[in-house]
Amino acid sequence: MSISVKHFFNFLNSFSPLKIAEENDNNGLQVGSYEAEVKGVLLSIDPSKKAVSYAIKNNLNLILTHHPLIYPSLKKIIKEDLIGEILHLLIQNHLNLISWHTPLDKIEDGVSEALLRVLKLENFDFITKEIVEGKVYGIGKVAEVYPPLTVKELAERIKEITQSWVVIVGKPEEKINKVGICGGSGSFLKDTLRKRGINTLITADVKYHVAKIAEEEGFNFIIIDHGISESFVLEILKEKIEKFLQENKLDIPIKIFKEESPYKIL
What we know:
CATH class of the largest domain: Alpha Beta
Shape: globular
Strand content: 25-35%
Low-confidence stretches: none
Mean pLDDT: 96
Largest sheet: 6 strands, mixed
Structural class: alpha/beta
Helix content: 25-40%
Number of domains: 2
Distance between the termini: 52 Å
CATH topology of the largest domain: Udp-n-acetylmuramoylalanyl-d-glutamate--2,6- Diaminopimelate Ligase, Chain: A, domain 1
Strand order of the largest sheet: 5-6-8-9-10-7
Order of helices and strands: HEEHEHEHHEEHEEHEHEHHE
Radius of gyration: 19 Å
CATH superfamily of the largest domain: NIF3 (NGG1p interacting factor 3)-like
Number of strands: 11
């Protein structure tokens, strides 16, 4: 028995529906054919040249990424440009690329939940919620820090677990017992958390002006690398896909491709 790219698309849509995607997000099949037979799967946060080269080398003809390759829309495809080069690699090697972005951020066991689990924090609830067709989705999670830790102690734990850089905004010695957590760019959740009496958020991509305001408001950010913060969801995806394949009596290799942060801290 074989399985097509369309079957994988439908499977992803069954637990992380495209109907909850953010407006103007680009999800689904970006390169390839729905009818192509899947011979191997590569899971990656980014559709980078390194990830595509790894898929080619290991005969994995379906690449499933979190971040889209085509975002926003392309007006030209030129091989000498990076996106054009990656597209040429995909097409010339008969690879299929599916991207599953904001729906994976919003499901119960999505990006933020995966980060929360690896940091061994207890989950409470979504930071923000939306109800679609009677089902609850949301962005970010609120977690308990027990026993309470200082911001610095929690940041040091995160650095050890993620094996990547960490930056603190706020008061390193302040003790906290609750924290917001949002994989990817979640600084927009600051004011929502403050209204709930929570003054610390673990996230990525906090701009200077947001950090400066937070500092003056007495709000703490623990900032980590964007890609690293989202990468832990790949293990959850792998488990779901393995179960899906077992139920359909299919033996298809699945690999995870992770990259280090592009930032080099001196």
